[in-house]
Amino acid sequence: MKVVLFACLIAGAFARPDGDAEVLLDEREDQGDGNFRYTYETSNGIFKETVGTPGSEGQSNMVGSYRFTDPDGNVVEVRFTADENGFQPESDAIPQPPPLPEFVHELLAIAEQQRNSGVQFDDQGFPI
């Protein structure tokens, strides 16, 4: 439920105020067993669709998307999964970190080889 509220707050925070917006679509299904689906769309371009199922750890697992127009007039679409691993959004509008340098991949491979060969490390990362 917290994830749903968080996603709604994000969508609402980025949506431009439009006092004349009309609800074009508002569909809600709740099967009463933890499975649900809802979709809504407004005339000012706000859209949200979510499908929820019961999770393995008591949470609601959800997948869906939402769309809104940013202050510059660009349409932003976000797809998401929310489950025991948290809220996981995907969108071209979300900044991505630069790729790791090749030497970091090489160091990670060396560390994995050492770990697989039985080398153990202390709390500070030094071989024991």
UniProtKB/TrEMBL annotation:
Keywords in alphabetical order: Cuticle, Signal
Molecular function via GO: structural constituent of chitin-based larval cuticle
PROSITE patterns linked to this entry: CHIT_BIND_RR_1, CHIT_BIND_RR_2
Signal peptide: 1-15
GO cellular component: chitin-based extracellular matrix
Region Disordered, residue ranges: 48-67
Protein name, entry field: Cuticular protein
